[in-house]
Design brief:
Helix content: 25-40%
Strand order of the largest sheet: 1-2-6-5
Mean pLDDT: 80
Low-confidence stretches: 87-103, 105-127
Distance between the termini: 68 Å
Shape: elongated
Structural class: alpha+beta
Order of helices and strands: HHHHHHEEHEEEEEEHEEEEH
Number of strands: 12
Radius of gyration: 28 Å
Largest sheet: 4 strands, mixed
Length: 318
């Protein structure tokens, strides 16, 4: 069989972490997705990187791949003696006549790319095998993640005909549940391809990406909000109004507040799948006015004369 360097395909080191592999795949997916890419051979590259990701993201598949050793891309090689025995589970197979893509399709249930599909089982598989598994990246807003939404996916999927396999457009409507998080992979059973030999439909896997929000930053089910306050609000304390995903609430700031101080608003984050919500964290940012009228300037000058506060007093103790 010919060796494929999955690490090189994704542009990562062989010691790359799962997170580094995931980030590399998502970056390349945006570049080479056949529906939007203008790159040469985008569909071929997209399928190739999808295969690489399917193997390297799974610890068991990655370990099996690493056991094959490192070879030059395209080089013919044979797996180490007995390598296939840990995966065949008693099924005979002539691996010397199978290319590497087919090998992982047989052993691991498919490692194809997304255009958007990868194979759930080899087309030569046993009767009753599931249909193809589809995979797509879905971009949604934070409001969509909070309330749930429905999206229509425009996929370019393979269709088996008597002449072979051709790609055809397909629209799939999918309900995104509330509380979905950035980077989460959502499985939608039965929304994949139809089986060609009487088995069940394949599944659809959605890679969720949240659009940046102008106010909130999401981390899992928690939200973070920068809250600007004036110097006098920080010094004297204040009760201010801040936004949440459910509407405005009041936040009480005690006198002597500091920049970067964090306030936790329990249950004001994204909803969780089972029950409850994450939290909202308000981070204080003290903002000094850039333009002063004569009265304001006079008050600041008077404060400078009478105040004994010295934020740099600790310099003298060094």
């Amino acid at each position: 069989m010919q060796y494929k360097d999955y690490y090189k395909i994704l542009g990562v080191d062989r010691k790359a972490t799962e997170d580094e592999i995931k980030k590399a795949y998502r970056k390349l997916a945006r570049k080479y997705h056949p529906d939007v890419s203008k790159e040469k051979n985008a569909e071929e590259k997209f399928k190739e990187m999808g295969e690489a990701y399917e193997v390297l993201k799974d610890p068991e598949k990655r370990a099996a791949y690493d056991d094959l050793g490192s070879h030059r891309a395209g080089q013919n090689f044979r797996p180490p003696p007995g390598w296939e025995q840990q995966f065949t589970r008693g099924h005979a197979a002539d691996y010397s006549k199978t290319d590497f893509s087919d090998l992982f399709s047989e052993l691991f249930g498919g490692a194809g790319g997304m255009g958007g599909t990868h194979t759930g089982h080899n087309a030569r598989g046993r009767a009753g095998a599931p249909g193809q598994t589809y995979e797509a990246t879905v971009h949604i807003s934070l409001d969509d993640a909070y309330h749930g939404t429905e999206v229509t996916l425009d996929l370019n999927v393979p269709e088996h005909t008597q002449e072979g396999v051709r790609r055809v457009p397909k629209n799939i409507n999918v309900r995104i549940p509330k509380g979905i998080t950035d980077g989460q992979k959502l499985r939608v059973p039965g929304k994949g391809g139809a089986s060609i030999n009487g088995g069940p439909n394949g599944d659809l896997f959605l890679n969720i990406v949240l659009h940046p929000h102008p106010l909130f930053k999401a981390s899992g089910h928690n939200l973070y909000l920068d809250v600007p306050i004036t110097p006098w609000e920080a010094a004297l304390g204040a009760s201010i109004e801040i936004p949440t995903m459910e509407g405005n609430v009041r936040l009480k700031i005690k006198e002597g507040a500091k920049a970067g101080q964090k306030f936790r608003l329990a249950g004001k984050g994204l909803p969780k799948p089972s029950a409850g919500h994450g939290d909202l964290y308000a981070l204080l940012q003290i903002v000094t006015p850039s333009i002063l009228n004569s009265v304001e300037k006079g008050l600041f000058e008077e404060l400078a004369k009478v105040s004994s506060f010295n934020p740099r007093g600790h310099f003298g103790r060094l």
